[in-house]
Every structure is written in structure tokens, then in C-alpha cells.
Design goal:
With 124 residues, the protein is an alpha+beta fold. It has helices spanning 60-67, 73-85, 92-98, 105-122, and strands at residues 2-4, 10-12, 20-23, 26-29, 44-46, 55-57. It is built from four helices and six strands. Helix 1 (60-67) packs antiparallel against helix 2 and helix 2 packs across helix 4. The relative contact order is 0.13.
Length: 124
């Protein structure tokens, strides 16, 4: 069985693959994601006219958490757009505290620096 991974390369499915999360074309280990622990239960079904496949995406809040891991201006623009589509400002404090931030000092620092920026974007 083959699956898609980052860079659109095929790889055989292994037990290691099941520990990965893919969003778009980017895949990363579950323990290196910013998603909230309950992200799977909070997925949003994408309404498509497919008979044999159900497509879902992370919730808007989880998408924003993943955007915060790079601290990049393009990601902040994406966050601004996501916030214009859904009002979730009151959920950030809990999401920030529950996010699984990888134990990498540089990533943790970016996540902490992004928090006030995201909160500022969330103010209507």
C-alpha cells in the first residue's frame, strides 16, 4: 500500500507512518505537532460529492495552531483570513495551554512570540 508524504513522494505504509499527521502536503510526527490533543474529534468534514471517500480537515483553531509554529508573515495573513471566516477568539487561552508544542527551544519560542500577535488579530 502506498501513501502520499511531504514532497508528493510515495512511501510504503509502516507502523511509523501511523504516527504521522499530514496537512496539505506537509507531514510531521504526531509528537511534533501543535494540534490540540483532541484534534481528531474536532475535525470538520469537507462537503464534497464523493461516494467512497470522506474528506476532513482540522478545525479552524487547530489550523491556526499549526500556522503558529513558524512565526512567518504569510502564516499570520492566513490566520487573519481564518479568523475572518470563524469567530473563535474566546477559545485561544485554552488552546494555547493545551497545544502540544514540540520540545524544541526554537519552536517553543516562536509559538510564544506568535501568541500575542494572534490574539491581536482576533480582536474585531
Amino acid at each position: 500500500m502506498k501513501t502520499w508524504t511531504s514532497g508528493w513522494r510515495n512511501k510504503r505504509q509502516t507502523p511509523n507512518w501511523r504516527r504521522r499527521i499530514c496537512i496539505g502536503r506537509t507531514c510531521f510526527a504526531r509528537n511534533k505537532s501543535f494540534l490540540a490533543p483532541e484534534w481528531v474529534a474536532n475535525r470538520v468534514v469537507v462537503q464534497l460529492k464523493l461516494q467512497l471517500l470522506t474528506v476532513s480537515r482540522p478545525s479552524t483553531l487547530d489550523l491556526i495552531l499549526t500556522k503558529m509554529m513558524r512565526g512567518d508573515e504569510n502564516d499570520l495573513a492566513d490566520i487573519r483570513f481564518l479568523l475572518s471566516q470563524e469567530r473563535i477568539a474566546g477559545q485561544f487561552a485554552e488552546a494555547f495551554s493545551r497545544a502540544r508544542v514540540p520540545d524544541v527551544p526554537e519552536i517553543r519560542e516562536l509559538f510564544l512570540k506568535a501568541q500575542p500577535k494572534v490574539l491581536q488579530l482576533a480582536i474585531p
